[in-house]
Hints:
The complex is a heterodimer of chains A (about 220) and B (about 80). By secondary structure, chain A is α/β, with parallel strands linked by helices. Chain A has helices spanning about 15-25, 65-75, 85-95, 150-160, 210-220; strands at about 1-5, 25-30, 45, 80-85, 100, 110-120, 135-140, 145, 160-165, 180, 190. Chain B has about 80 residues and is an alpha+beta fold. Chain B has a single domain (about 1-80), classed as Mth169, Chain: A. Chain B is about 35% helix and about 30% strand. In chain B, strands 2-1-3 form a three-stranded antiparallel β-sheet, with helices on one face. The interface between A and B is medium-sized, with 20 and 12 residues.
Amino acid sequence: MRIGVITFPGSLDDADAARAVRIAGGEPVALWHGDADLKAVDAVVLPGGFSYGDYLRCGAIARFAPVMSKLVDAANGGLPVLGICNGFQVLCESHLLPGALTRNDHLHFICRDQALVIQDTTSAWTNSYSQGQEIVVPLKNGEGCFVADERTLDELEAEGRVIARYIGQNPNGSRREIAGIRNARGNVVGLMPHPEHAVDLLTGPTLDGLGFFTSVLTSVVNA
Amino acid sequence: MARVVVDVMLKPEILDPQGRAVQGALGRLGVTGVADVRQGKQFVIEIDGEVTPELREQLHAIAGELLCNPVIEDFVLIVDEAQ
């Protein structure tokens, strides 16, 4: 199972994402922003970081990288894609997911272990979890406040497309405590917290993040 | 020469914590009567020659696609031919 991890200039968590793929039992494949080539991978992770220095808006420049035109087509064709943090911002800018991520309501960069509740287990990236399962993974962002108009938020809720919600104090002002969402088909998932940092007790608070990476291996096998 | 100016502002319904922080600072500096502060971006694009209708259309499309995110922002494009 070959899982691509795209590196943009300014990506920070590509190595951790590749490591999480390896620990889950997949084969990580390095993809480069400047190549219009997905190397025939079975799924793709857009990692966290500050692609293109967050210039213009987070993810706004990355959206137009050569590799992204291929990725948008592939995602619309059903390829599993997980965007974490900056990757989530890139997915929203690419219109693969609705809404946008804006500056945290309190203006501070936040870095802490965050409790989440998994609310959808049908997506390609969350099928290893159980409905209502509570997990703890690191959260680190300055622009993680998820916003969308009320109609879009209502649609996301009605269609069960909110995959994870923050528990306890809302860390960034996200509407309806939304931490992650999926597209209608369930192959594209965006998540603000970092499951790839919670796959090894030496470096993470828990092993709770591993499920995202084992989920996609299962969904690719079943596809 | 012409100059095209694109102003990008967060939509009114989107919370602007930066604008609110500036508003707070104004209060601390003794400026009274400030009802609201919103922070935006301005792009100044210098054009060789005149702004043809085709170019204007192209810039308008780029403003809506790249310079602003229409999910959260509005833009105003102004052409100043007198530069």
